[in-house]
Write a structure and sequence with these properties.
Blueprint lengths: L8 H57 L10 H7 L4 E7 L4 E6 L11 H11 L5 E7 L2 E10 L1 H37 L2 H13 L13 H71 L4 H25 L4 H21 L4 E7 L7 H22 L3 E9 L2 E8 L5 H6 L1 H12 L3 E7 L3 E9 L7 H6 L1
Parallel strand pairs: 5-6
Antiparallel strand pairs: 1-2, 1-4, 3-4, 6-7, 7-9, 8-9
Helix pairs in contact: 1-4, 3-4, 6-7, 6-11, 8-9, 9-11
Length: about 450
Amino acid sequence: MWNRSRSDLKVCLTLRVAAIAALCFAAISAYFLITADRAVHARTDAIADLAAKTLELQQGKIQWVNSPRTDFPDLDNVAASVMTPGLCLAFRAANGEMLQRFCGGTGGRMSEPPQAFAAFYRALFEPGREAARPVTSRGVRVGDAVVWVDPLVLTAEAWHEAGRLMAALALALPLLCILVYAALARALRPTQLIRAGLERIAANDLSARLPPFDLAELSAIRDVFNHLAESLEAALAARSELTRKLIALQDEERRHLARELHDEFGQSLAAIRALTASARQTAAQDCPTLLPECDGIARTATGMAETLRGALFRLRPPDVEELGLVGSLDGLVAGWNGRSRGQTRFEIGFSGNLEHLAPAVSANLYRIVQEALTNAAKHAGATRVTLHVAMHDGDIDLVVADDGRPNESAVRSGMGLLGMRERVAALGGRLSFEANPERGCALRVLIPAATPHQPAALEHAA
């Protein structure tokens, strides 16, 4: 059975045209056969009428001259003028006795038809049916003039006509299919352009447009396609602009929060540590039993200060433009190794020239790596996380892989992956996330180094 999803439109339409043409040939053949059968019956009826009138005239002549009836019936003149191959002319007396009969030979020119066609033709048309007309004398029926055609001759003639039509069909149908297929191939050639345009749209190339077409239907598709591409391009441009503004607002909020934590919370922790040191000196002289509490407060304040430094580092990392992407990522990985205290080992590798990236690209790559490492540390439960950044043919390939448990739903449910997708989309790149039960999870980002989506707003966001 054919697979409809993979059927070629030209082949399907050609086969349908061929089927319709075959039905038309069959209808034409049936029309000719029916017309020929009606013509045969009309001719036999006319001959029967002529024979009956001739015999009645003979009866009237016999009665008029009062001559003996030895020359009745006499069908020689009628038979000589109407006789054709297969035609039979006879006079049947009132008692059923056939007194005179003439039959034309088959001529030997017709080939014997197939048995299947002969059976079909006999069932459909009843060949050999008699045409009988009564012959009367002074109002008394003396017999019938009977005319019929040999069924074998009729069947052979019908097969001969049908064979000619079938031969014409056998010659015309392949030629028709070839011409229809060629015409359809030419008419449907623009569908290749439509498919190419759709593939470009699927590949995020929204600049694709279709040229004008001659056919009205394809022109309507072209208008809708171009309008859709323009709408998508405008929507993507608006979305990218909104993304850049949101990223800029997010980074500005992070810088503001970092300043507030440094100026308010950091100073408070410094004051607590100073007061704890003063209280410890007083307790050492006046109340030694308070020394452990003072030491505990100092340790707590020191731990909070370290946590605050880590948060400030994440909120406001070192200047990527000054340190470069490689130096900034080295420091980021070193910080994660220090905070993990051996529970998770973070490794980093570089390949290619990464020193001449645009500041906007470097800053956003740093943020993407920062969020990816955070997700790997929080959600994967990994013992080893590897980061590799490479430059291949002008494209930046970034891979963050871990050996932890696959927990894609936990990662996708948070805002981290969404933020990374927005940054990658703003850079004109692609992001993919793969979870493998045996090899952990892997996040891959591919960004063109010379991305066209780097306006001043994005550089400000970085």
